[in-house]
Amino acid sequence: MIEINHLTKNYGTFKAVDDFSFAVAPGEIIGLIGPNGAGKTSTLRCIVGIQAPSSGSISIGGYDTAKDPVEAKRRLAFMADEPQLFDYLTVTEHLRLTARIYEVRDFEPKAKALIEELQLTGKEDALPAALSRGMKQKVAIACGLLHDPPALLFDEPLTGLDPLGIRHMKQTIVSRGRNGSAVIVSSHLLHLVEEICTRVVIIDRGIKVGDGTVAELSARSQMADAGSTLEQIFLKVTARDEAGG
Amino acid sequence: MHPLLYLTWHSFKNRLRVRVQRLREPRYLLGFVVGLAYFYFIFFRSTARGGRPPLSSIPGFDGILGFVEMIGALALFLFVASAWLPQGSGSPALPFTRADVQFLFPAPFTRRQLIRYRILRSQLSSLVGSAFFTVILKPGSAARGWTFLIGFAIVMSTIRLHMMGITLNRSSMREHGWLGLKRQWLVPAFFAGATIVLGITVYGDWVKLSSLEGLRSVLTELQDLFSTGAAAAVLWPFRAVARLPLSSSTAAFFRALPWTLGILALNYVWVVRSDTAFEEASAEFAEKWAARRKKGIQPSVRPKNASATPFTLAAEGRPEMAILWKNMIMVGRYLSLKTLFILVPFLVFFGIPIARNGSAGFSRAIGGASFFLSIMVLIVGPLMARNDLRQDLGNLAMLKAWPIRGAALVRGEVLAPAVILTATEWLLAILLLIFSPAGASRSYPFIVAGILLAPGIILAQLLVQNALAVMFPSWVRIGQNQPRGIDVMGQRMFMVFGMMIVLVVALLPAALLAGVAGFIGYSMTKTIPIIVPAAIAAAALLVECHFASEAIGRLLDRTDVSAIDAAEQ
Predict the structure, then answer these.
(1) Which of A74, B140, B290, B541 has the fewest CB atoms below 10 angstroms from its CB?
(2) Under DSSP, is residue B529 helix (H, G, I), strand (E, B) or coil?
(3) Tens of pLDDT, residues A118-146
(4) CA–CA min distance A83, chain B (Å)
(5) What are the pLDDT digits (tens) for B7-36?
């Protein structure tokens, strides 16, 4: 569903992403992890079409994001870490606008279901200024899920959510994966990635340094014990482990 | 060094360093060169060649200083008084940055210290602004140069302080309503009273004023009017402030200085005390709130409801309409009925001749105002109405994730300001048709031609503005970010110049087609046709606009959002 082939992204002379390749099949939930400045956000922005790759290609559902960006974007939803909402549109109006943009025909029952699922009931006519950060995050996610995208990208999806919101968010991501969506979750919360992702891709200084299930990564990184946690693996492959050096 | 002084000094120093460093980017360097060249040719070279002389060397300048002082005082009064008018929703708070709020608000500083810090920072800008105006206005001698520099800096400081006071006053009234007003009624009451006094003074003398011929006699009459009685009293503080930079000698400067410094000090005390009043009012409000709760009475807190949308967005259709819908909602929610208060000075200005001359005066005033406003809307409207890509550049990451072609996005974005400005033009055209001083039968072909041409001319200008925003995003103001510096000034001039060229090029084919149609029409009828050539030109302009939107759309598709992000910082 999502294919990234030899993606490179340069900012001037700085190489943020370097020859990065991976694919996400329908039903897979990929955890994209890496230290700060590793190139996660640049990768996500290139996939979504917010930034143009310097080289390489990306396709969503068989549509190349460079050659057929509109069709590729139609199959995609991106939930950014910092929810961006229009200051002057209410929650319902955001959903109505999204429905029109993504050509969602049965918008109203879907919007109602999403409002309930994301605990936004009672906030339908509120403007973003009257919403907490967590609520704004939920509105952005509701807009992203409205058109049932087969490819979903979450950038730090739990930021700003309360414990109940976190539980609901995890359920939402897992249920979308189970329903056949290809999901990428970028997060620093390794326990979240370990809990909900079927596979993990580790990026460091723009280069892929790990790709597989936690068990596979553990075996490949030659961890001493078979029961290594993702945190231990992460610190080992990104050479940030203070003890191990 | 006090931490707030440290912050002010190092911020100033580093901002300067960043401005120098950014000249390594060709577009900023180009802007800097254009800005410098402008300064050189306008303010230095012309003097060297004996071109434009200093303002004060104009013969009889000292004689007209009195007029200049009176006009300056009146302008100052109108500027400050209009700032007291209620603003639309969300009038600006004190200009603290996000970092200020995060670092300084939780730090062990009093609110008064924080306000002093803002005052100090604004004074630095006053000095820079004053130096800029000193260079432009070129006082005639070195003595006049330094007195103007210091005098103008004090005037700007006073205005900035007063504006800060208005903001604090407003936030107090917004938070505490009647209680806030009760605490700080004196200054707004002064402005309300002064406006009434000046209005009555002009109204009482209107017969004489309207019969005068020539600007000089009108100014003399106004000077006489405002030099006696209550009008002189209420205008005195503004004359005292305006007098300082206009001092004709060092002695005059030192005579005027204590009064101006006194007014500056009064404003300082008012601003700092506004804060105390604000805090006291907060405590008082908290007490009253507790008392009400005891009695079981809830204060009337109304939820902030969103107003109705301009039209219902259908579930299916062109994406341009969805973006138009979004941007029209923005206009509806940013403006409020309170915003119409800014029309009050216009109503007063046009109301006096109506009141004095009956229906003839009414007709003349409406006709004249409609013509003046229609020209203003056509020229300034596309620059001012920014509810398009210029406003949405900050959301570009989101917009680019939408499955919409860049061209459709561009068309959708420019539609809202185009619709609003065109509707305004058409409304003014109808008013002009009814109240035209030249008579409807003589002016209607020109007015109909204007109605036909307005959408195309407005769209063309909006597209140029949006194209520039897409091509040079870092030159465009995004949110509160206001780029500054000589390079930015040069860039703006470069932009204005570029826009004029593009507009001329865009209008040329339409004008040529209209000319051909006009020639054919004239050959056949021996009268100069107006409406048909205008219709042909309007159609040509709209076709051009369509192709331009396609080209800008392709540019937008290729735009890297990181360029916008960098500009925002």
Answers:
(1) B290
(2) coil
(3) 888 898 888 887 888 888 888 988 998 98
(4) 10
(5) 777 777 777 787 787 777 776 777 778 777
- Rounded Cα–Cα distance for residues A74 and A77 (Å): 8
Question: A93–B319: do the CB atoms touch at under 8 Å?
Answer: no
pTM above 0.90, yes or no: no
The domain of B352 spans 319-568
**Which DSSP state fits A11?**
E
Question: In the 3-class helix/strand/coil scheme, how is B330-358 assigned residue by residue?
Answer: HHHHHCCHHHHHHHHHHHHHHHHHHHHHH
Q: Does A92 touch chain B (CB under 8 A)?
A: no
Beta-sheet strands, E only, within B21-61: none
Which residue from A48, A90, A97 is facing B401, i.e. has the nearest CB? A48
> Which of B155-169, B235-249, B265-279 bottoms out in mean pLDDT, i.e. has the lowest?
B265-279
B564 is written with which tokens?
Answer: 């916008």
ipTM of this model?
0.71
A16 touches chain B (CB under 8 A): no
The verdict on residue B308 lying in a domain is no
CB A146 within 8 A of CB A102: yes
> Pick from B549, B540, B401: which is nearest to B465 by CA?
B549
Residue at token pair 């973003």: A128
Q: Shortest CA distance to A168 belongs to which of A201, A191, A196, A131?
A: A196
Q: Any CB–CB contact under 8 A between B395 and chain A?
A: yes
Cβ contacts from A onto B, under 8 A: 84
For residue B278, give the amino acid letter.
F
Residue of B315, B329, B403 lying closest to A107 (CB–CB): B315
Do both B22 and B94 map to the same domain?
A: no
A90 is in which domain, residue-wise?
A: 85-148
**Would you call B201 exposed, middle or buried from its count of C-beta atoms within 10 A (0-12, 13-18, 19+)?**
buried
pLDDT in the model for residue B368: 77
Is B480's pLDDT higher than 50? Answer: no
Residue A111 included in any domain: yes
The arithmetic mean of pLDDT across residues A77-83, rounded, is 84
Residues B449 and B559 both lie in one domain: yes
Is A67 within 8 Å of chain B by CB? no
Query: Are residues B42 and B90 both part of a single domain?
Result: no
The strand pair at A76-79 and A151-155 is best described as: parallel
B333–A73: do the CB atoms touch at under 8 Å? no
Do B455 and B342 fall within a single domain?
A: yes
Whether the CB of B304 is below 8 Å from some CB of chain A: the reply is yes
**Main-chain dihedrals φ then ψ at residue B302, nearest 5 degrees:** -90, 130
Block residue for tokens 């008082």 = B284
Q: Does residue A190 fall inside a structural domain? A: no
Buried b (16+ CB within 10 A) or exposed e, B252-276: ebeebbebbeebbeebbebbbbbbe
B332 in the same domain as B241? no
How many other C-beta atoms are found inside a 10 Å radius of the C-beta of residue B25? 12
Residue A77 CB neighbours (<10 A)? 26
